[in-house]
Amino acid sequence: MSTTGGVGGTGSVLDQYQIKDREVKNNNLGKNEFLQLLVTQLNNQNPLEPQENGEFIAQLAQFSTVEGVEKLNSSVSTMLSGYQSSQALQASSLVGRKVIVPTDKAVVDTSETFKASLVLPTTSSNVAVNVYDSAGTVVNRINMGQQQAGNVSFMWDGKDSSGKTLPPGTYRFEAQATYQGETKGLYTMLPANVDSVTLGQNGGELQLNLAGVGSIGLSKVQVIGQ
């Protein structure tokens, strides 16, 4: 009878150990804690009804699973650290370079010819680009006539409609095309200088901080220039 009472006490000891362990580890059961529980259970098992081999093997299998999960978490953490290091290298190499991104604004040096492109989904008989200054006033219109579908290049000489050279600054470009019986807006691909970069948090995407444009994800960059 005393032995039977010991078995009941064993269950109580294990329960108290598990509760204490969970409170200390905040419900995180690692391989060391799992092994301690297994040893405690073996030390306090009923001598008249010892644990069967099948149960012991099952618990060892659980132990192996816990250990495998910890190793996997460690490997993933290592991979994430390596990815973030790679982002840092990318960041240092992009600062000061020019990229082509989908946007309608750009910082323009009007002493040079500004080169950009637009995306035309289908052939159009009339393609044009309106140029706006920082005040929102149309300063020029680039008429390109008929164009085939695809990426269409266009240039602006930095002058207004009267031929006067405008001051350097941020300008907005509005591309339009006539097709399917109506005039529709188009996406423009404009150059921008990379002022700085922001590393993605927790493995997130690298963000480029572009002059005159703002922040944009690295995946949206179409071309990286010199």
Strand content: 35-45%
Broad structural category: alpha+beta
Average pLDDT, all residues = 78
CATH first level of the largest domain: which class? Mainly Beta
How many distinct beta strands? 11
Order of helices and strands: HHHEEEEEEEEEEE
Specify Rg, calculated over alpha carbons. 34 Å
Question: Biggest sheet, open or closed, and with what strands and sense?
Answer: 11 strands, antiparallel
The count of domains is 2
Helix-residue proportion: 25-40%
Low-confidence stretches: 1-14
Distance between the termini: 87 Å
CATH architecture level-2 label of the largest domain: Sandwich
CATH-defined fold name of the largest domain: Immunoglobulin-like
User: What shape does the CA trace take?
Assistant: elongated
Count of helical regions: 3
Protein traits:
bacterial flagellum biogenesis; Immunoglobulin-like; 11 strands; cell projection; alpha+beta; 226 residues
In short:
The protein has 226 residues and is α+β, with helices and mostly antiparallel strands. It contains three helices and eleven strands, in the order αααβββββββββββ.
Account of the protein in words:
This protein has helices at 2-25, 31-43, 53-94, and strands spanning 98-102, 105-108, 114-120, 124-132, 138-147, 150-156, 169-179, 182-198, 207-210, 214-217, 223-224. It is an alpha+beta fold. The protein has 2 domains: 2-93; 98-224, Immunoglobulin-like (Sandwich), CATH 2.60.40.4070. Strands 1, 2, 3, 4, 5, 6, 7, 8, 9, 10 and 11 form an 11-stranded antiparallel beta sheet that branches. Helix 1 packs antiparallel against helix 2. The longest helix has 42 residues, at 53-94. The termini are far apart. Mean pLDDT is 78; it is low at 1-14. Required for flagellar hook formation. May act as a scaffolding protein. This is Basal-body rod modification protein FlgD. Belongs to the FlgD family. Keywords: Bacterial flagellum biogenesis, Cell projection, Cilium, Flagellum. One of its GO terms (biological process) is bacterial-type flagellum organization.
